[in-house]
C-alpha cells in the first residue's frame, strides 16, 4: 500500500489532477488487477449475505415504497435493464440500485467495517450489480467492480472520519461505488475521476439521519448514494466534469465539512499491480443490529444462560457497559437521546440503543431480527424496568482498541459490571462478536449460506432458494445473461400509496 498525504490547497496552488485524492482513487479503479481466490470467495459470501438480508426485508414499508418507485420507471434504452429484488420486472439501473440498496440496508444486518469512519461496504454491491446487468457485463467483470468498491470505501473509512463532523458515512460510499462501476465498465482514469467528484459532491449529508428519532430514511441514505454514483458515472461518460479539487479545494469537502484548512489525512491505496484485499478486513453480522451491538448480544446471551437471576430487574441495581467512545456516544446512554429508552420508539431507533439490545438479549438469551424489536417485546414491563438500569460509559482502553489498526487487537465490545441487590457483582467482557474473524465462531461460507436459508425460508420457495445459492456461488464464472439470476423472485406486495411517479 502507498500512503498519500491529503490536505487543503488554495486555488492559487492550481493543484494538478494527478496530485488529487480523487485522481489517485481513479487510478486504482482504472487498473484491471487479478482478483485473488480468497477475495473472490469473500465477494461470493457477501453477495449471499446481501441477498439474505434483502429477502428478509421485502415486505417492510421502506422496501415496498422504494420498489414501487423503481417499478414506475421503464428500462432505459441504453441497455437490457436491471432487476429489482423480489420481482422479475426490470427497470433502469439507477432505480434498481435505489430499490435494492434500500432492501439490503433496511434491517441493518449485512457487513461492516469500522475504523476512523463507519461503513457497510456491502452497500456497494446493489449499484455495481445493477450497472453490470444493464450493461451486459460478465460475472468476472462484476467481481472486479465489487472488489474495487470495497477497497476504496474501506481505505477511506480507515483514514477520514466523517462522523466527527456529523457528516453521514455514505459520503465515502458515493465515491467507492462510482469507482467500482468504473472498474466494472473498464473506464479510463479521467472518466472515473470526474465521476468520483460528482458522487462525493452529491452524497454529503448530516448525521441527523442516525440521531434522535431515527426515521425510515436510514435505509434510504446508502441507496441514494448508490443511485447518485450510477448517475455520476453516466454524466462523466458523457464528458461532464465535477467540482475540482473535490477533497482538497479551499471550498471543498475537507476545508468546510471535515477537519478544516489545516487538516492532513494519510490515505493508503494499493500500489500499481497490488492485489486488492480490503474486503478481507471487513466482517458481517450474525444479528440484526448495529455492529457495535454484535459482541454485546453474544455476551448478554451467555450471561443470561449462566446467571438466570439477571433477567429479573428486581435483582439488579445497575448494569454499566464500559465501552468505546463510539458505542457510548452513538448507540449508548452517552448519546443523551431519550428515545433510546423509549419502549414506543421505532425499530430504527431501537437497533441503535445498546441499553435496549443488551437487556432483551440478556432476558431472552437470543436475538431475532423481527421478534426482538416487536412493540410488545419492547413494551414488556420487566424489560422496561431492567432497560432503565443499563447505562454505558466510555473506557479509554476500549476506545483505543476500537481505533487500533492492528486487526489482532481491534475490538468492538467492552466490559460489563452488574451490581446485584444482594451486594454481589458480576463482571465479564468480550472483545469481538462470535462471528468476527477472530471470534468464537468465525463466519465461513456455510454460515453465510445458513443465514440465507434461515431468512429466506418463509419468503422464497425451496427451489428458488437452491437456484439462487447455486448461481451466487458461481459468480466469477457467470455469463452476462446469467447475472439476472443474482436476483430472487417472491410473492410480495409491490404497491404503496400513490406518489408522483
TrEMBL record:
Residues 287-473 form the MmgE/PrpD C-terminal domain. InterPro entries: MmgE/PrpD_sf (IPR036148), MmgE/PrpD_sf_1 (IPR042183), MmgE/PrpD_sf_2 (IPR042188), MmgE_PrpD (IPR005656), MmgE_PrpD_C (IPR045337), MmgE_PrpD_N (IPR045336). Its EC number is 4.2.1.79. GO terms for molecular function: 2-methylcitrate dehydratase activity. Transmembrane segments: none annotated. Gene3D superfamilies: 2-methylcitrate dehydratase PrpD. It comes from the Bacteria. Keywords: Lyase. The keyword Lyase applies. The keyword Transcription regulation does not apply. Monomer. Belongs to the PrpD family. This is 2-methylcitrate dehydratase. It comes from Homoserinimonas aerilata. The lineage of its organism: Bacteria, Bacillati, Actinomycetota, Actinomycetes, Micrococcales.
Amino acid at each position: 500500500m502507498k500512503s498519500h498525504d491529503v490536505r487543503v490547497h488554495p486555488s492559487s496552488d492550481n493543484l494538478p489532477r494527478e496530485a488529487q485524492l480523487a485522481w489517485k482513487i481513479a487510478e486504482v479503479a482504472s487498473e484491471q488487477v487479478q482478483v485473488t481466490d480468497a477475495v473472490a470467495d469473500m465477494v461470493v459470501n457477501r453477495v449471499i449475505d446481501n441477498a439474505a438480508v434483502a429477502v428478509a426485508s421485502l415486505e417492510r414499508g421502506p422496501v415496498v415504497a422504494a420498489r414501487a418507485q423503481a417499478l414506475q420507471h421503464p428500462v432505459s434504452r441504453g441497455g437490457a435493464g436491471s432487476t429489482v429484488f423480489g420481482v422479475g420486472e426490470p427497470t433502469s439501473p439507477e432505480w434498481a440500485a435505489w430499490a435494492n440498496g434500500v432492501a439490503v440496508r433496511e434491517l441493518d444486518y449485512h457487513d461492516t467495517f469500522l475504523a476512523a469512519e463507519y461503513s457497510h461496504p456491502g452497500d456497494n454491491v446493489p449499484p455495481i450489480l445493477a450497472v453490470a446487468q444493464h450493461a451486459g457485463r460478465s460475472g468476472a467483470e462484476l467481481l472486479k467492480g465489487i472488489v474495487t468498491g470495497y477497497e476504496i470505501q474501506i481505505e477511506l473509512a480507515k483514514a477520514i472520519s466523517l462522523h466527527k463532523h456529523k457528516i453521514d458515512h455514505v459520503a465515502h460510499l458515493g465515491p467507492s461505488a462510482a469507482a467500482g462501476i468504473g472498474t466494472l465498465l473498464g473506464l479510463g482514469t479521467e472518466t472515473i475521476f470526474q465521476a468520483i467528484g460528482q458522487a462525493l459532491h452529491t452524497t454529503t449529508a448530516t448525521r441527523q439521519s442516525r440521531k434522535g428519532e431515527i426515521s425510515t430514511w436510514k435505509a434510504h441514505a446508502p441507496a441514494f448514494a448508490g443511485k447518485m454514483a450510477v448517475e455520476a458515472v453516466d454524466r462523466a461518460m458523457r464528458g461532464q466534469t465535477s467540482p475540482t479539487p473535490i477533497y482538497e479545494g479551499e471550498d471543498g469537502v475537507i476545508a468546510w465539512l471535515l477537519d478544516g484548512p489545516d487538516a492532513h489525512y494519510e490515505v493508503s491505496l494499493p500500489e500499481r499491480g497490488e492485489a486488492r484485499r480490503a474486503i478481507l478486513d471487513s466482517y458481517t453480522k450474525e444479528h440484526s443490529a448495529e455492529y457495535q451491538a454484535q459482541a454485546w448480544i453474544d455476551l448478554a446471551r451467555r450471561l443470561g444462560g449462566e446467571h438466570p437471576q439477571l433477567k429479573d430487574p428486581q435483582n439488579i441495581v445497575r448494569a454499566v457497559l464500559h465501552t468505546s467512545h463510539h458505542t457510548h456516544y452513538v448507540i449508548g446512554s452517552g448519546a443523551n437521546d431519550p428515545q433510546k429508552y423509549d419502549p414506543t420508539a421505532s425499530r430504527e431507533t431501537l437497533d441503535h440503543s445498546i441499553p435496549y439490545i443488551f437487556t432483551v438479549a440478556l432476558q431472552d438469551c437470543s436475538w431475532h431480527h423481527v421478534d426482538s424489536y416487536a412493540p410488545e417485546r419492547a413494551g414488556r414491563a420487566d424489560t422496561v424496568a431492567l432497560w432503565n438500569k443499563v447505562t454505558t460509559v466510555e473506557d479509554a482502553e476500549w476506545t483505543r482498541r476500537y481505533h487500533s489498526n492492528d486487526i489482532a487487537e481491534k475490538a468492538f465490545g467492552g466490559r460489563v459490571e452488574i451490581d446485584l441487590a444482594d451486594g454481589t457483582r458480576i463482571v465479564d467482557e468480550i472483545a469481538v462478536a462470535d462471528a468476527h474473524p477472530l471470534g468464537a465462531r468465525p463466519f465461513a461460507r456455510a454460515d453465510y449460506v445458513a443465514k440465507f436459508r434461515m431468512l429466506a425460508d418463509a419468503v422464497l420457495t425451496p427451489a428458488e432458494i437452491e437456484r439462487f445459492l447455486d448461481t451466487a456461488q458461481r459468480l466469477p464464472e457467470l455469463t452476462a445473461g446469467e447475472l439476472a439470476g443474482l436476483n430472487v423472485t417472491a410473492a410480495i406486495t409491490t404497491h404503496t400509496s400513490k406518489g408522483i411517479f
